[in-house]
Amino acid sequence: MKSCVNGNGIDRTNPAWLKLDLYCKGIRLSEGCLPKDTHGRPILRTRAGLGSGIELILPENLWTNVPVTEEFAADSPYELIHDQHGYFVHYEGERLVEVGIAPRPLWYDQQSRSGKRMDRIGTLQGTYLAIYPAAVCEYWKESPRVNCRFCSVGLNLGYDDADDKTIEDIMDVVHAAREETGITYVDFNTGHYTGETYLDILEPMIRRIKAETDLFIGVQTPPHHDLSRYDRLQAIGVNRVSFCFELFDQDTFEKICPGKNREYGLQRYLDAVEYCAQLSRKGTWKNPWVANGEIIVGLEPPEASIRAIDWMTSIGAIPTVCVFRPLKAPIWRSSLLPIQRICSLSLNAFTAPPWKEGCRSDWLQTSMSAWCSCRMNAGFSEIIRNALRVPKKSARSRRVFSLSSTSPAGSCVACSAEGTDGSC
Questions:
Q1: In terms of Cα–Cα distance, which of 399, 367, 392, 393 is closest to 380?
Q2: Fold of the domain built from segment(s) 106-337
């Protein structure tokens, strides 16, 4: 049996490390492991800015979306094997761990009242409902295109995703997902639209969901020029806003995100992150509020990503650190960042102030799995367990902190205050 411990002393059977390594290397599927054979979720191209793979459940209940269709996955040392005992991840021919297959919801095959199949309106990402409610990002409609070079969302609408979703369609899916799957969080994502109409499109949907359910809601759009719109989003019940500025290095941002650079510019994204971060002071336990800034590791110098993490934590925002995944469509080609570099960036996300002095090491160890439950960045707990040595002291604040990419519901915790047990 080959050793499960790599040259850096990391145990490959550790689910957190394994999750991160699977992001970076993908997995090969053996006979009997395709979703049609497993009754698992289909490999859809919906919302594939960086995703669209097979949904696995690793040990310790870590849900992850693993690349399988991208070219680099064909050379992965990992393989998913099925036998009479279950599904197992193998590394270079040796069995590592047993995994689960995320089940395909029955409501996927149901129809909304307008006759659309529900999985073309919204899909589960891990354990939350993801909806791209409007037309394709207009960067894709220009000639020549000015879309972000890593993104394939413009290839998805009309392929696996409907492009004409009504509020009634969306409510049918929301209720089905809540009743049959038990979701607690809905995440809306839009692209750029002329006139900055994205919040106008979303607000009626948000009000309707809040009127009929108790679900948490997140919004991910470009930054609106009128920052008071985010006060209004908070007032109507939005719980999370996220801004994908992707890259902190200005030159790289201009090169890889030409549309975003022309219409908004990097600074406007950063201004929106900072403004929304301060709104967290008005949040309550009943109606929490968090602000995320999202970057992609692997497309800019690592030092720039570290500066982005430091800046976000300094203003009270939550850094979302996504792992670059070269997509199947030939939009952007770049070498994969070695996992060791990603780990160093991940460690920086946890040790950046105020988290370094505010979070207890035992809390980090016991809580990591609970709040790293989505498609990005849950692979960092092993970094904390092995590299972070934090003295046990009370938290300076009760800020909410997570490296989950898109779902605060079920994946957020608050730092412990003196005298508490450190749990959320």
A1: 367
A2: TIM Barrel (3.20.20)
